[in-house]
Amino acid sequence: MDIRIGIVGAGNRGCHSFGRIISEREDTCVVAFADPNAKRAQGAAELLGIEANIYTDTESMLAVETLDGVVIASPDHTHEACALAAIASGLHILIDKPLASTTSGCLNIIRAARERGVELFVGFNMRHAPLLRRIKEVIEAGDIGNLMLIETREFYDGGRSYMCRWNRRYEWSGGLWVHKGSHDFDLLNWFNAGGEPVRVSAFAGVNALRPDAVPFDLEPGKPLGPNCTVCAYREKCPDMYEVEPRLFSEETAAADGYYKDLCMYTSDKDTHDNGIAIVEYDNNVRASLLQCFVANFSDRLYTITGDRGTIMAALKTPTQIEVRPRWGEENRIIKVPPAGGGGHGGADPRLVDCFVDSIRSGASYGSNLADGIRAVAIGEAAERSWREHRMVEISELVDLRDAGSV
Ligand SMILES: NC(=O)c1ccc[n+]([C@@H]2O[C@H](COP(=O)([O-])OP(=O)(O)OC[C@H]3O[C@@H](n4cnc5c(N)ncnc54)[C@H](O)[C@@H]3O)[C@@H](O)[C@H]2O)c1
């Protein structure tokens, strides 16, 4: 029998990632969307070629539908309320990262899930990427000895999807150290298994995605934007962003004012376009994350050093890991086969596999709630650090030993 899933949020992840994967599997189906913008939700159902019931909030969907599981793919600041509603229904829940946009929101979700005894897990899809799984195996095999330093650098092509919609604002995303960084901080925590993050320092700012850095001359009386679809410089701008018209047209935006293609130079942003965060762990390991949303490529680069060697890798190009022993042996290249189809290097379908297995068997999932709050706590500490120009102790936000017992 088909497993019946309701999806909260019918945007990019709700439609193109989870909606597509779930509706294309033989054993699962999307029976409903909950999204305040019914027009967008209807567009998502049409794009997927499915019949789905449409609701404008999570509670109404849960009150009417008989579901086996809920996927939450709404903006980060809505995760807490949507998750609390879904937890009350007792269903299995897959919530896309971050668990919530604040550490306190994560704690509220964790407490409610614990009380209700529901299986809720965070969509840390990067843990399913073959290259990153292989790095984890090399670390666990002891090939580089005891971990000392983990360095991650993320470069993201053009910043378009960051400064042109809700995640450009701290109040809606928790800032990009939470919204985007929760992926990478989770990986740092995963690689450094057994270590707890203790303190964070971060520096960040906006250098390139600002009104005075537009890469062409403006004509008198012809302002930019406000969004790419109607911008007078649409043909000329090298950063023009094409939206999916069924989900994000002027017509769907008329219903809720949500434009996904605001000008990335002039939009009212209070997040950063580049920065560096440093995390110190309680097991004598230090880690850093560099975020740069201004580049002509998108990739993540890793340099991981232990007392016996170093691992160097890039997530995308080439998909291989270089292990450099400190003494004796030659450097070794581990080729990682291409991941196959599906979003995020084949990681998204594997995440859904785990969700479906967990619904079928009732078994717990490996990426648990403690991982969810740990990643958000580092992100929130990084946000406080760069905004307040100080080093931030994780204990200001949460006692992770409590979260670890969840
Ligand atoms: N795991 C990943 O690799 C990954 C990648 C991108 C985004 N994400 C996460 O996925 C989530 C969705 O991001 P997206 O890029 O699909 O966003 P999006 O802007 O494309 O879509 C969000 C949708 O949620 C709807 N929405 C707004 N408020 C809502 C509410 N209260 N209840 C239900 N729906 C609501 C919007 O109308 C919109 O249709 C975010 O939490 C984001 O951080 C994860």
Sum this structure up briefly.
By secondary structure, this protein is an alpha/beta fold. It contains 15 helices and 15 strands.
What spatial order of strands do you see in the largest sheet? 14-13-12-11-7-10-9-8-15
Helix content range: 25-40%
Number of separate strands = 15
Q: Which architecture of the largest domain would the CATH scheme give at its second level?
A: 2-Layer Sandwich
How large, in whole angstroms, is the Cα Rg? 21 Å
How many angstroms separate the termini? Answer: 32 Å
The bound ligands are: nicotinamide-adenine-dinucleotide
Mean pLDDT: 93
* N-to-C SSE string, H for helix and E for strand: EHEHEHEHEHEHEHHHHEHHEEEEEEHHEH
Q: What is the CATH topology assignment of the largest domain?
A: Dihydrodipicolinate Reductase, domain 2
Number of helices: 15
The number of distinct structural domains comes to: 3
CATH superfamily of the largest domain: Dihydrodipicolinate Reductase, domain 2
How would you sum up the global shape?
Answer: globular
How much strand?
Answer: 15-25%
- The level 1 CATH classification of the largest domain is Alpha Beta
Task: Provide the low-confidence segments as ranges.
Answer: none
Structural class by secondary-structure content: alpha/beta
Task: Specify the biggest β-sheet.
Answer: 9 strands, mixed
Describe this structure in words.
With 406 residues, the chain is of the alpha/beta class. The protein contains 15 helices and 15 strands. The mean pLDDT is 93. The strands form 2 sheets. The chain has a 9-stranded mixed β-sheet. It has helices at 12-24, 38-48, 58-64, 79-88, 103-116, 130-140, 160-163, 170-173, 176-179, 181-191, 245-248, 250-256, 343-361, 369-388, 400-404; strands spanning 3-8, 28-34, 53-55, 69-72, 92-96, 120-123, 147-157, 197-205, 274-281, 286-295, 299-306, 309-314, 320-325, 332-335, 392-393. 35% of the residues lie in helices and 23% in strands. Bound molecules: nicotinamide-adenine-dinucleotide. Nicotinamide-adenine-dinucleotide binds at residues 8-14, 34-37, 40, 58, 73-76, 78, 82, 96-97, 123, 125, 165, 179, 258, 344.
